[in-house]
Amino acid sequence: MDGWTIGVIGGSGLYAIDALDEAEWIPVESPWGVASDSLLIGRINGVRFVFLPRHGRGHRLAPGEIDYRANLDVLKRAGCTDVVAVCAVGSLNEPLSPGTFVVVDQFVDRTVARAGSFFGSGLVAHVSLADPVCSRLSGLVADAAESAGARVARGGTYLAIEGPQFSTRAESRLYRGWGCDVIGMTGMPEARLAREAELPYALVAMITDFDCWRESDDAVELPAILAQLEHNADTARRMIVALAHALPARRLASPIDRALDGAIITAPEARDPNRVAMLDAICPRLLAGSR
Fold it and tell me: What residues contact 153, with CB distance under 8 A and at least 6 apart?
């Protein structure tokens, strides 16, 4: 495989990509559940893009109601080689002011009520998540964001909370003490599942506000966030176009393309045929003959 198909998961404020040529919304079914929306598939500068609005068009889904497994599964079924995720976040770090695009490189996961793996009873696997994003893709996206006029921070730790409420001041201060840089509600288990799906993943966290840790600030309120979201989304669209023009003509293989090598521990004769069947798009090369 030497061509790019870039999956783009759009967060709050980013529900479509107008620059796509020959764009068409296509529904894709998943054995894991119902994806957030149909897929918007088209091309920019000859590069194939597959766009999925994480919350659905019109922002129908709360963070805890998103079927993250279905979303990653349909992107894999659509032929995506890599995934760029975009999301809105609050800042836990004074220098990271609203409007900054943080290209995340680490996560702390505080979500508690979401299915976080494609694997489980009947087929157990353990992938490495020490470095949860793709450094190559993250670098390309950071360059594209700068080309689009964004103020970019390369690297940062994303604190994922369950939501849908924003943090208490005590929580916000605690997370700052942990060394986290931004806080959001959708980065996990999305990044975990992308790794299990052997999809190189980059996350662009668009800061809309300082969280609520600053004594001088009012509490986080949605109207102020929405105003910053609109500006951030315009820049994100330009970033995607810049990425399409900057991608190398040939996609070299990534180690993440084979992240499941050696990760499946369940013996072939002990594997649950139903779970194997559900993984037909996620890891077909490893499960051939397991049914």
Answer: 96, 100, 101, 102, 103, 181
